[in-house]
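Recap from last week: sequence in, structure out.
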Amino acid sequence: TENGTRLLLHVLSDKILRFRYLTPGAAAEPDFSYAVPGSADHHPTRPAVPAFLEFKEKADHYRITTGRVICIVWKDSLRTRVLDRSGNILAADEKGFHWQYDYESGNDIVKMSQQVPSGVCYYGLGDKPANMNLRGQRFMNWGSDTYGYEKGTDPLYKNIPFFQVLHQRIAHGIFFDNTFKAFFDFAAERADVTSFWAEGGEMNYYFIYGPTLLEVTQEYTLLTCPPELPPLWTLGYHQCKWSYFPASNVQAIASGLRERRIPCDAIYLDIDYMDGYRCFTWHPQHFPEPKQLVDELAADGFKTVVIIDPGIKIDPQYPVYREGIDNDYFCRRADGPLMRGSVWPGLCTFPDYTRPEVREWWAGLFKGLIAETGVRGVWNDMNEPAVFEKGTFPEDVRFGYDGQPGSHRKAHNIYGMQMARATNEGVKRFSYPNRPFTITRSTYAGGQRYS
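Predicted structure tokens:
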């Protein structure tokens, strides 16, 4: 455009278009995503290339046609309109892409606004305790520890910036691949406009055509990769609460379930199995013989799943803490000191799971639990990340971000996902030939690959 805004439009398949807007004077950031794997070697389900692709330039617009959709881009404003091959309008920009300075947060905002046709419905965004149809509501994606939430509480733990639009029985999806704090307004502020925006990063989103809701979900799953086949026992009943201890209580619960003929395939151990809430340890009094307990539960048909949090207790006598310090694996503030925050063990440091060497180290820590003790699954918790002082890390905390370094503003929403990634690698490594089982409280789009 005349003001220097640029649009990079990538046709991934007949059904998927990617829109990436660059602000005036800004160079394109490296094309990196935790949600969408970047190479064919790591993306076995990448959507098929378009069977048909045609590009035409007109006096005032460009027209891109695939086998299933038509996209019109106006030259003066870069506003877009997407139609199906029958001419039905699927999505039409209102203002389209724009950016602004937010005086409340002090951040630059990238924003997209689209028209709302009569009778349209919106669905998605993951765990939002709201009406199924999201129209008339506004939501935030900023993973938060929200104990005891109710209907209408927002945000919660997970960050899934993907929603579906259904109008006259024709569906499409929007996947806004931006990890900064994000917002979604489904005709709440203005009845004829829906918008989504983020406090940083790029306006980078995927349009995904159905035409059914199921087909939109299938295409999104192919884009971000489907989950691996889970162990069969994970489809059974699981028993979990905060918290079963000591070991005799766990045994009593297991015996009671069997005596009452209540089906159950797994029992979960919360933080009280640990020695002073130190991850990868066992409480010497409450669980003096962990392998014996796990073996006895297994003999009675129960798989054992244990909790692991990201907070590593600051204790020079604690081997996990010493290893992290010696190898500089923990997150640091912008001016150099370690990121310290209080969680269940007291004052803790926190691994930077966005660095490959940290994920490799973390995966190796599961040998004792999985290979030596016989634990069959791991539950990641408190990984929004949550700390007791102010809810989460300060914004200046730095992350390696797999070679794209940034602050906590950029990494917050993917911290839990990358912890689950590292955990799943460890569980998979030491469970082989059994399939791994990892669950996580916080995650981002694409996290289904790991948990």
